[in-house]
TrEMBL record:
Protein name: ABC transporter substrate-binding protein
Region named Disordered: 33-58
Keyword Nuclease: no
PANTHER family named in the record: ARABINOSE-BINDING PROTEIN-RELATED, OSMOPROTECTIVE COMPOUNDS-BINDING PROTEIN GGTB
Amino acid sequence: MRSTSSRNRTTRAAKPAAALLAAALALALTGCGGSDDDSDSGGSKTSGSGSGSSVTLPKLDGQTLEVAAVWTGAEQKNFMKVMDEFKKRTGAKINFVPTGNNTSTFLGTKIQGGKPPDVAFLPQVGVLHQFADKGWLKPMGAEAKAQLDKNFSKGWVDLGAWKGKQYGVYAKAANKSLVWYNTAAFEAAGITSPPKTWKDFLTTAQTLSDAGSPAVSVGGADGWTLTDWFENIYLSQAGPEKYDQLAAHKIKWTDPSVTKALTTLAQLWGKNDLLAGGNKGALNTEFPKSVTQTFSGDNPAAMVFEGDFVAANINADTKAKMGTDAKVFPFPSVGANPPVVSGGDVAVALKDGKGAQALLTFLASTDAAQIWAAQGGILSPNKEMDMSSYKDAITKQIAQALLAAGDNFRFDMSDQAPAAFGGTAGVGEWKDLQDFLRNPKDIAGTQQKLEADAAKAYATG
């Protein structure tokens, strides 16, 4: 099994800190009633390359940099706004390459074929560890490291390091403990306040279903969304210490704590009438559709669970207005521990040269963070950025609550695992939880498959 010393250093958190963050998030979101106009976009403050720039970049006239990431659609469009500024300041050209969901396989093939991109965004910290061990990553240079140390807390800095070397910057983060809801559906069902506990969540879902609304939209065609469901329930129910143990595969997936979490999850997934399109429909619904079918159409679903990045899809693909038609509440508490699960995308260099290092330097700066935040649908772990840059009040308050935790957060469990288990479509945890969504009664069989797949992946790294 791979060393987890760096991982544990960045994810260890006291229970009270997690509870305080969840309370702060709940308070912030309860006060969110504004639309996009409630907070000004700060993009104009950093969109130029004049005296307001916080970072000096080299001239790269004529150089083309290839950048690879999983994003498509609205997420890709928003990221390219950041790249437009980088091009303006350096004279470089950017060729963006979408990796698809199998990021590690896509990049591994390119690297082994001798044609790696200059910079890639890795959605799993476990992949960063694997690539670093293979010698595929280039350490950050002094200028990039200086920006990183200046603008990021130690927890986020350490997540981009492995075995004493700094490789990447988490330029994009996510709060994955959120449920977004259609206010019209809640009002039609007579629901005046969002649920705070899992028991209340199930009652709310049944009330919505009885009122004629598909209660919960699940993007089960993308297995990663299902891992996020499990992680929030497991963290809240089993607690931080068990979470860290399972993330490191120090306890097996056949552990009673996993049995309990899957049993809890089956309370929702086992009720076909509470899922938009039923279990079959959920398995055929990709993440973007899970959002659009909650905020558009003749009979939209009432709730959709996923991270802050849902806002990008709401803004780009629906007519719903943030803070008015679309609101959000923290993932309901299952046990004594309110869940606070974070994720993120780490930018790493796969080629030597000043172009790749210049891009990492820019991505670690407040300039890049503010331009990106102004587009909507992302959180930045950059603690020095101007918070008024966020496009809407809801995203700003989610970001403030996340930053208030400092280093007290739990990183996405599947993203800490080897990619063969936690980060590849059609296999491992993604596939096993899709099978569980198909048949939520098979808890023991699901655990056995999860343990077999985990044991194999962790043994080979």
